[in-house]
């Protein structure tokens, strides 16, 4: 990619978890 | 009957699906909502938005979200903060720079994307350290 200095890996959860149907 | 079951796990599958969804977005295939962000129209798939954002989850999960095909976000995020988040949703890669991080942080807060908010805080914190 143009202009990308560094890529840092994020291992944790990235987005919310949609609750399972009760 | 009772034969041992074997599972073949295609470990690239989730990223390949996401990459195809991004191609569909770029070509406007099955996109079902236009987001007006800072006046700029952005096409997307509600299913991807709802999967990635607590804000969109609360809007589109109910019946009220069914007929919505144009959504303006008054007082919401500016395009330069929102666009990197939309790309993140479809690519898993969040582009950040010292110049854009505050706008991305504001947009992620608005969209209730808490994990991205935390990553933006880490980035901003790190950019202040000598």
Characterization of this structure:
The complex is a heterodimer of chains A (about 20) and B (about 130). Chain A has about 20 residues and is mostly loops. The mean pLDDT of chain A is about 85. Chain B has about 130 residues and is mainly alpha-helical. Chain B has a 3-stranded mixed sheet. The model of chain B has no long low-confidence stretch (mean pLDDT about 95). Classes of the chains: A little secondary structure (about 20), B mainly alpha (about 130).
Summary?
The complex is a heterodimer of chains A (22) and B (130). Chain A is mostly loops and 22 residues long. Chain A has no helices and no strands.
Assign an overall shape of chain B: globular
The chain pair with the largest interface is:
A-B, 10 and 16 residues
Strand content of chain B: 5-15%
Shape of chain A: rod-shaped
Mean pLDDT of chain A: 86
Element layout with pairings:
The complex is a heterodimer of chains A (22) and B (130).
Chain A: no helix or strand
Chain B: H1 13-26, E1 33-37, E2 40-44, H2 46-52, H3 54-60, E3 70-72, H4 79-91, H5 101-110, H6 114-128
Parallel strand pairs in B: 1-3
Antiparallel strand pairs in B: 1-2
Helix pairs in contact in B: 2-3, 4-5, 5-6
Structural descriptors:
heterodimer; A: 22 residues; little secondary structure; rod-shaped; B: 130 residues; mainly alpha; three-stranded mixed beta sheet; 6 helices; 3 strands; 51% helix; 10% strand
